[in-house]
Design goal:
Low-confidence stretches: 4-19
Structural class: mainly alpha
Strand order of the largest sheet: 1-2
Pfam families: peroxidase (PF00141)
Function: Removal of H(2)O(2), oxidation of toxic reductants, biosynthesis and degradation of lignin, suberization, auxin catabolism, response to environmental stresses such as wounding, pathogen attack and oxidative stress.
Keywords: Calcium, Disulfide bond, Glycoprotein, Heme, Hydrogen peroxide, Iron, Metal-binding, Oxidoreductase, Peroxidase, Secreted, Signal
Number of helices: 13
GO biological process, one term: response to oxidative stress
Radius of gyration: 20 Å
Largest sheet: 2 strands, antiparallel
Organism: Daucus carota subsp. sativus
Helix content: 40-55%
Bound molecules: protoporphyrin IX containing FE, 2-acetamido-2-deoxy-beta-D-glucopyranose
Number of domains: 2
Distance between the termini: 51 Å
Length: about 325
Amino acid sequence: MAHPLLSFLVIPLFLAIITNGQLNYNFYESSCPHLPMIVRYNVWTAFRNDTRVAASLLRLHFHDCFVNGCDGSVLLDDTARFKGEKNAGPNKNSVKGFDIIDNIKADVERACPSTVSCADILTLAAREAVTAAGGPYWQVSLGRRDGLTASMKAANVNLPSPFEPLDKIIAKFTSNGLDTKDVVVLSGAHTIGYAQCFTFKQRLFNFKSSGKPDPTLHPSLLTDLQGSCPNVDGSNNKLNPLDTSTTYMFDNAYYKNLVNNYGLLESDQALMANQETAAMVNDYSMYPYLFSRDFAASMVKLGNIGVITGQEGQIRKKCGSVN
Ligand code: HEM
Ligand SMILES: *[C@@H]1O[C@H](CO)[C@@H](O)[C@H](O)[C@H]1NC(C)=O
């Protein structure tokens, strides 16, 4: 029996399936068969030179998808019409990997002009990056189109901050169709890459005006961090590994760190202060396979946020500007 309320629920669900159906694994199979190899070659070459590029590409994809959906908006330079996302607080002097995306795009344009979106290239590059760093592999569905605009303001509002409480961070994920589990799982990305001292320095000296450091920071990590991030402004931009134990490996060490009070960001360690998220952290710290599987699944969800398809948007010729 069709309850009237049910049709409200079922129709949007059905539309969501149709829309997602416009992304598929074979989207460029005939129009750009070498696409996956071109992305792979470029990411692995860059990774061999500098392993940090894996972290940079993964984060760039995340910051793209959380602002206007995965539409390549993060790649756009400022124009007379809009202030882009590159100079938003969470991105400025922080997100990296644009040069690699530009190199891939140039190779892809040579092989298949005006065919492959920058949004798809970034999604594929993030997957390759994780795999290069020793993490899981997953199938990426394709057919995203590139957006026509970017928003500095939306980047400032939508991207999570390491200084905000867990419930606020969860709310930002929820508003993108992700859930608490995705927060815990995707935070596992902090098993690779670096953070600048200013993103966690508030924990080191006078935490919440207590005159003492953050009690949930392990004393020996505290000593190390106080050494590399002395309490002067001059140290603000110094880099520290997010995962001190296996900095370049995409593994489940992030969760082992949290269990041992070795989380770097306040927002990382906060996952242990909530019963529901702490239970998940414990599981992932014990079962690397569980983390690999769930990370792959959450990355697929991340890559599907707010995608535009069909005739919407465009296929940019260069990722930094609209055609
Ligand atoms: C849950 C909320 C999150 C917060 C508050 C957060 C915050 C941060 C901060 C502050 C940094 C250091 C940036 C800098 O110092 O320049 C960072 C780095 C990083 N984040 Fe997150 N992040 C979050 C979630 C994620 C997610 C979901 C991903 C990817 C799936 C991710 C991937 C990364 C990576 C790979 C780096 C290292 C980048 C590099 O070395 O270039 N983060 N994050
Ligand atoms: C190799 O990595 C360094 C940074 O570690 C970078 O400055 C340089 O441009 C990279 N070289 C190539 C060919 O990508």
